[in-house]
Amino acid sequence: GMEHKNCYFANSIIFSLQIFLGALAFSFFAKGFSGSYMKSMSSQIERRFEISSSIVGIIDGSFEIGNLMIMVLVSYLGPRVHRPKIIAVGCLIMSAGAFLSVMPQFLMGRYNYERITVSVDNSSKSVSACSPASSEGPAVTDATETLSTMINAGCEKTTNSYLWLFVLVGNLLRGIGEAPIMPLGVSYIDDFSKEENSAFYIGLVRSSGMFGPTLGFLLGSFCASLWVDVGAVDVDAISINPKDSRWVGAWWLGLLICGTVNFIASLPFWFLPYSLPKEGENENLKISHLSVQGDHCKIDTPAQPQLKFSEAAKDFLPALRKLFGNPVFVVFIFLTILQYNSLVGIITYEPKFMEQQFNVSVAKAIFLIGRYLTYFQIPLSKSKLLFVILPSVLEGAYVNSFVAYLLNLLYFACSCEALQVAGLTGVGCKRSVGNVFCNAECNCKVDQWDPVCGDNGITYMTACFAGCKSSSGTGRNMVFHNCSCVQGQGLGLGNSSAVLGQCQRESCTKVFPYFLALQTACAFFLALGGTPTYMIMFRDHVMRIFFPGGLPAPIYFGALIDKTCLKWGTKSCGGSGSCRVYDTKEFRNVYLGLIAGLRAGCCLLYLVLSVLIMKRFKPDGKEMTDIKNAERSASKELDTANKREILPGSRTSEESEETYM
Predict the structure, then answer these.
(1) Would the pTM count as exceeding 0.90?
(2) Nearest Cα to 151, choosing from 642, 575, 651, 626?
(3) How far apart are the first and last CA of the chain?
(4) Contacts of 413 (CB under 8 A, 6+ apart)
(5) Rg of the chain over CA atoms, in angstroms?
(6) What is the mean pLDDT of residues 216-231?
């Protein structure tokens, strides 16, 4: 009976480890999926809550802050906690964060985008955007008045200026929930799998998680193409299209899906044991671990010695000091922080860049970023990573990084005509005869944004600014006629009409494919050169503690992009909203300049790193034994007295010298 029970037990152990691996792989997928979805929705959140890009950067950074707060704690607790249950709680917290972020959608009411054109009753009478104080005025004035009273009514109903805090707290919770998954999951595999299988299992778990980000961006692209109040509003009545800077997609819909996926990810972990006997240990050892209590089969785990936090801290700090005394390590940290910053900046703001520069809808831009991320995953899943940086690896990384930098400079060549907006980009509204404004008699409100494109290829802030006297059609097919400013540009009387929306710039549409080809090449070289370095960092989760380095990227990118805004929107209750239109040239220079600067820094640090390593490298075939030893001794000190007490899976430093993604 005993042998039969033991056999059954051995099988159930293997089965438990398989379940854990499967569950961990799915939780890796879930966190990548929800993380990239949130990233993809940043421009939608910016518009829905009428906030600036720098606030979006702060919302984005709250995830890192939450992650950081818990990461140190988790690293100390290590195996003294019930790891599967802590991971389950983490997934639940991530799920709660996603659901919390959705709340404003149900508190804010419908989204009223900024517009001046309103259809007056069902009569076929055309609406004039230009309302001089003449006899034809009243009908139009009534229309605009009803609109403003309608907006004010919406304003009293909900003070939604700070509802974005829900999204911030939700994101913070996602960061907190995600923190234990990787370190505890990896250390659990390290502890209970065969030494030779451990790296393979971790690689398996990670590569299955790779699909998460790509699918997250695909979902983001789909949701961005749906109207925000989908199902509650007649979409045909909406006068703007997905390319418009006032368009808001169904950002909340994907968050419901992310919340559900994270909830499902938590379920299997509740049923996994505190610990397992080590995979592949011989039967006798297994029997000694078993004590039969009636029919109940129980593992006697060796008691974990309780290490006091203060003692751990005492050992931890000298070890850190030793690591930071190693110049190779310090340069390496800064190099990784710079690479991480440029990557985070690109993933956060590239959709906005594409949309503003090349007339692409946000939905399409998000889809393309998802595709861009897949290039990073091809080399990842195949590259074997070394914790010790060997000169050959370094040279490859440097060459690839330098090629990526040169390609990055070519981005500046992918320029196209700037958007011409009358009154904003130096194009005036003066008549050709005399020095009079062509819309002088129209009484236009300066703070409105409901752009129209004149036949002359110039965009006007509103149909009123174009001096349009009549219109035909409804919804997004409305056409304005008799526009005095469009006439004034030397066109015949017959041609003075304008259509809703910004003017499309043909040259930009033509340049876009070249931009995409360049982006693909850039991503590929970066992935070949730079990503192994990231992965070495992520593998050794001592490093995660130094990763607030990526935290400021969305904030300073956002703040600098805000500086290039030409026209801020107006909230329904007054006050400035999100940016409606950017100076495309300035935006391009700031955004591409930032990335080029960060990449140049990377190239420089790669050079410094190779010089440092060449100095230490002994050409007598000893393969850098001294560096290996330096790294090892520093890592050994981190492990101090109790090998797995201070950091989960502290085996990282010695045994993960060859681990892969």
Answers:
(1) no
(2) 575
(3) 43
(4) none
(5) 30
(6) 92
Inter-residue contact 532 to 383 (CB < 8 Å): yes
Cα→Cα distances 329→295, 533, 543, Å: 54, 12, 11
Cβ contacts of 273 within 8 Å, gap of 6 or more: 16, 84, 299
Residue with tokens 């979902």: 219
DSSP for residue 295: T
At 645, the pLDDT band (50, 70, 90 cuts) reads very low
240 touches 246 (CB < 8 A): yes
pLDDT at 130 over 50: yes
117: DSSP letter: -
Query: What is the bridge-based pairing of β-strands 498-500 and 658-660?
Result: unpaired
> Which regions of 201-309 does DSSP assign to beta strands (E)?
290-293, 296-299
Pairwise CA distance, residues 403 & 425, whole Å: 36
- SS3 (DSSP) at 452: strand
Token duo for residue 492: 């015949």
- Candidates 631, 605, 630, 626; CA nearest to 616 is 626
pLDDT (tens digit per residue) in 433-490? 445 677 777 878 787 888 899 888 888 988 888 888 888 877 778 888 888 888 755 5
Q: How far is CA 458 from each of CA 198, 320, 455, 470, 646, rounded to the nearest angstrom?
A: 62, 60, 7, 19, 64
* DSSP label of 99: H
Q: Angle at which helices 584-616 and 327-358 pack, to 10 degrees?
A: 160
- Mean predicted confidence (pLDDT) in 337-365: 88
- Over range 620-641, report the average pLDDT: 47
% of the chain surpassing 70 pLDDT: 68
User: Look-up: residue for tokens 């972990």?
Assistant: 269
Amino acid of residue 177: G
**Calpha distance 105→259 (Å, rounded):** 15
Residue carrying the six token digits 């076929």 = 124
Cα distance between residue 179 and residue 77, in whole Å: 13
Report the alpha-carbon distance of residue 394 to residue 390 in Å, rounded: 6
Which residue, among 442, 513, 423, 427, has the nearest Cα to 482 in the 3D structure?
A: 442
* DSSP characters over 481-504: EEEHHHHTTT--GGG--EEESPPP
On whether the CB atoms of residues 227 and 235 are closer than 8 A, the answer is yes
**CA-based nearest residue to 454, from 508, 506, 499, 507:** 499
DSSP letter for each residue of 576-640:
EEEEEEE-HHHHHHHHHHHHHHHHHHHHHHHHHHHHHHHHH--SSS-TTHHHHHHHHHHHHHHH-
Strand ranges for 421-545 from DSSP E: 452-454, 459-460, 468-472, 479-483, 498-500
What number of residues does the chain have? 661
* Helix boundaries (H) for 78-137: 83-107
Q: Closest Cα partner for 391 from 605, 601, 617, 603?
A: 617
Counts of helices then strands in the chain (DSSP H, E): 22, 11
Q: Are strands 565-570 and 384-386 parallel, antiparallel or unpaired?
A: unpaired
| Contact by Cβ (8 Å): 27, 183 | no
Encode pLDDT of 249-303 as tens digits: 999 999 999 999 999 999 999 988 887 777 666 444 444 444 444 444 444 444 4
Question: In what helix (H) or strand (E) does residue 150 lie, and over which residues does it extend?
Answer: helix 138-157
Calculate the CA 407 to chain-centre distance: 23
Residue 141: name the closest of 127, 121, 157, 161 by CA.
Answer: 127
